[in-house]
Amino acid sequence: MDWHPFIVHFPIVLIIASVLLDLGAIAARKPDLHLAGMILFLAGAVTAVPAAFSGETASETAGLIPGIAEDLAHHEDMGTLTAWLTAVLSLARIHLTIRNRFHTRAGSVWLIAAVAVAVIAGWSGYTGGVLVYRFGAGMLPIQP
Question: 106 CB contacts (<8 Å, ≥6 apart)?
């Protein structure tokens, strides 16, 4: 059974929601909301790992679809990049929070990087949609 479609939506939503919550915390001047933003980002990072691994497994079958190779490779690259960047940014977020430095310039730099990762995660989801709707990846039986 291909678990990728069931797992992959979690990191995308959690990462994007985390960034929106952090930006909302700044706009509303409610710094307590940053804790919720951090929890969502960490959850996004944790779920990005099984999403990437399940995608690797799914790509073995999808790779048999004629003409899919380039788009599949691009999607795999975006998913892997998302997983690695969220892991690194999660460690940075924990460090900034423990050191009570999230509300400094370093936290602003972190947030800019997190916005970039949210865009990458969203783009990864879009490229996955292209694989499904354009090529039928995960939908159609593979015909020789």
Answer: 96
- Burial of 46-65, coded b for 16+ CB within 10 Å and e otherwise, reads ebbebbbebbeebbeebeeb
| Percentage with pLDDT > 90 across the chain | 83
Please answer whether residues 62 and 104 qualify as being in contact, where contact means their C-beta atoms are separated by less than 8 angstroms: no
Amino acid code (one letter) for 37:
G
Residue type, 132: V
pTM: 0.91
Q: Where are the domains of the chain?
A: 4-135
Q: Is 30 left (phi over 0), alpha (psi -120 to 50) or beta?
A: beta
Could you tell me how far CA 8 lies from the centroid of its own chain? 8
| Chain segment 33-65, per-residue pLDDT in tens | 999 999 999 999 999 999 999 998 889 889 989
Which residues are CB-neighbours of 16 under 8 A, at least 6 positions away?
118, 121, 122
CB atoms within 10 A of CB 125: 20
The interaxial angle of helices 69-98 and 105-135, nearest 10 deg, is: 160
